[in-house]
Amino acid sequence: MSTPGDNTAAIARPPSHGASYGRYVLWMLLIINFLAFLDRQILNILAEPIKQELKLSDTQLGLLTGLAFAFLYTFLGLPIARLAERANRVGIIGISLAIWSAFTIACGFANSYAQLALARVGVGVGEAGCSPASHSLISDYVPREKRASALGFYSMGVPLGTMAGLAFGGLIADAYGWRVAIVVAGAPGILVAILARLTIRDTRRQHIADRGKASPPAPALGLAMRELTSKRAFWWAALAASSSAFLAYGHNAFYASFFLRNHAQGIAEIAATVSGGSLKASGFLGIALGLILGLGGLIGSFLGGRMCDHFAKRDPRANVLLPAGAFLVSLPFVLVAVFIPHTLVALLMLGPAILLKTFWYGPIFATVQNVVQPGTRATAAAILLGMMNLIGLGLGPVTVGIFSDAFAGTLGPSEGLRWGLAVTAIMGIVPPACLWMASRTLVSETVEDGPSTA
C-alpha cells in the first residue's frame, strides 16, 4: 500500500495551504469516518451478550443493529446536506461527531431494549451529518481523475472502524463487559470533534476569497432533485451501493453470532492455541473477524480506488464495471464460508469475499460526485448514503434476522442462522446488474469540473 501522500498528491488545494495541510485534512476526515464506523459497528461483536442480558430475539437484534440507527439517519441526511451546500461543512461535521459520540456513550448506560434502541437512533441522527459534507469537501480538493482514490482513502475508515469495533470491542467486553466497551468506543469522538472544528478549514470560503467574488448559490432543492432525476447513472449506482450495503450490513451483523453458534468448539480451540489460553472465544473471534474484515476492506477500498482511477482514464465506465466484476467473484467465497465445516477455512474465506465486496467504495462514491454539478454534491451524497443506510443498514440485519428466526423453527438457531446468511447471499447478483445498467449512460452524464461551489 502506498503512503497517504500518494492518495493526496493531486489535491487541488486552496493557494494559501500547502501539501501537508491537504494530507492532514484527508487524514482527519478518515479518522472521523473511522470513529463513525467504530461506533456504528461495535454492537456486532457485542450482540450475543446484549441478547442474553436483555433477552432479545434475532429479529430484535437486527432492528437494534440496523433500522434503529438508519431510520432518522435516512430522513435527516437530506436537510443536513442542503445546509452543507451553503453553510460551513466543517462545523456540520464537528457537531455531528460530538452528537453521535455522546449517544454512543449513552448506549452503554441503557437498561432496556427501548432505551438502547432510542440511543441507537441518536447515533444515527449524529452520523447523518458526516459523510455527505465530507464527500462534498473532498470533491472540492480533488480533481475528477483522482476522486475515486481520494474517496477510497476516506472510505478506508469503514473497514478500519469495523476492525477496531470487532477487535477491541470483543477484548474489552471479555474483560469489563459490553457496556464498558461501548463507552470506550464513544469517548474519543468528543475530543476529535473539537480538534476538527479548530483545525480544518472549509475550502468554500477560501475559494471565494481567492476569486474575489461570491460563489454561485447552490441550486434550490427542486432544481437539485430535477438534476438528479435526469441522471440515470446516479440512480443505478445508488441502487448498486444500497444492495451491496444490504448484504454487507446484514451479514456483518451476524458473523460473530454465526461462528459462536456453529463453530464454538473450533473457535475455542484456535483461541487456546494462538493465545496459550489467555483469550476467551469472543475476544479471539473479535480480533480474528476484525483483522479479516478490516484488512480485506482496507485492501479492497484502496485497490478499488486506485485501479478504477487508472482504467477510467481510458474508459470512464471502469468506475462501475470493475466493481461489478469484483462483486460477482466474491459470491462463491461467501457461500463456502457459510457452509464449510472447518472453522479456520470458514474464517479465511471471508477475507477475499470482503476484499472483493469493498472494491466499489471509492469508484461508486466518485461516480456519484462526477455526474452532478458542484452545488449538488452534498445533496447527491446524502441521497446515496440515505438509500444505503435505509436499505442496507436498516433492512439488511433485520432481514437476515427474520430469515434466521424462520429457519430456526425447524432447524434450530445454529442452522437457522446459517441458512439465513446463505439465502440472503444469493441477492449478490443484484449489485453487478445495477452497475452494468449504470455503465450505459455514465459517459454522457458525467459533468466537467468547473469552479468549485460546493
TrEMBL record:
Transmembrane regions? 24-40, 61-84, 90-110, 151-172, 178-198, 233-251, 284-308, 320-340, 346-368, 380-404, 416-438
Task: Give the GO cellular component terms, alphabetically.
Answer: membrane
Question: InterPro entries recorded for this chain?
Answer: MFS, MFS_dom, MFS_spinster-like, MFS_trans_sf
Q: Where in the cell is it found?
A: Membrane
Q: Show the GO MF annotations.
A: transmembrane transporter activity
Under the heading Gene3D superfamilies, the entry gives: MFS general substrate transporter like domains
Give the record's keywords alphabetically. Membrane, Transmembrane, Transmembrane helix, Transport
Which SUPFAM superfamilies is this protein grouped with?
Answer: MFS general substrate transporter (SSF103473)
Q: How does it sit in the membrane?
A: Multi-pass membrane protein
What is the protein name given in its UniProt record?
MFS transporter
Source organism phylogeny: Bacteria, Pseudomonadati, Pseudomonadota, Alphaproteobacteria, Sphingomonadales
